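Bumping with the actual sequence this time:
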Amino acid sequence: MPCRTSTEPLSGTSQDEQIHLLVLLKTKLQGIPSLHIPSLTLPDILCSTTRASHIPNIPPDIQLPFFLRNRHVIDQYHGKPVKDEARQSTDITRAIWFWRLDEARQFERFHDTMRWNTAMFIALLTLHDFQTRSNHPKGMQMTIGINAAACRFIKQYLAAVLEHHNTPLLFDARETFIKTWKNGTWDLYTGFRASQKKLLKNLMKKLTKDWEKELDSAESNMGKEEYRIRVAQFAGSLVPRRREQDISTGTLPGQEKSKYVYRVNNPPHTPRESREVERNELLDALRVPFTPQTKEKTRDQRNESYELEEDRNMVTGLRNAIEALQVTRPQDMLPVLMHLFPAPGMGQAST
């Protein structure tokens, strides 16, 4: 029987079951930022529509069927990624990162925490770069340092952010970073005191204006084409920019293929005729029971969260990272970014 997208019950599903499934769908999709995935309806699930069965910016092995089936496991630690493999499998950790469930740990330039981390990381890399020179700028703070491992962690995170914004259909850089995050002790900054939040918000206001001026200056000095090739990838991803400064890099996601190899049971695209006679994987996944956790935590859960945080290290102290942001300027940072993430054909910086 052909699949219908009307509100009438489909063969094998009663009206009551469809109401139950609709509630399940809304509940399971809670926490995913708007516009990160297509707006999905129950008919999308019942009919296995293309936009439900294949979401291009999500890796093929953790697509919607995986997410719906494992939503209760994903929510075990309130949607937070956990490093310990015994507590949380790598695929669940990957799902949390790629589906953007944790405000603090993601690649999208949307939440304050992500913007603060990115800005501090760039500032720390800038200071690290200056420390390797004998002719570093006078007056530049040189007492703040990060080691080589921390430097690699930061570079991998920034590369993942660039990939997320500029080539979202590729996953190599993000998969590499998540693997590093999962298997190591390094983490992003998350525990901000009220005074630190206020300070960072004020710093970011000033930094945003300074970056807008620096990007204008770079475009004026380089010309539009060179700016597009060498600088545009950073605007709106790693650094703030005005809307009119958002020049396309000219890189279409479909022009490249991810080198990461995924093991999936079925190809992401299946003809509708085949999907109708096969078992509906999306519907089966949606039917898996799920009860969302409340925001209130028991004493044991609070202690467990504290223990999980205990095994995580920052690349340097938060006070040092904030200080680095205070003493570096966009005119110092942009050359470092262009060196670390050069345009194709202009040489690759070592990591």
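The tokens above came from a reply further down the thread. The first helix runs from residue 15 to 28.
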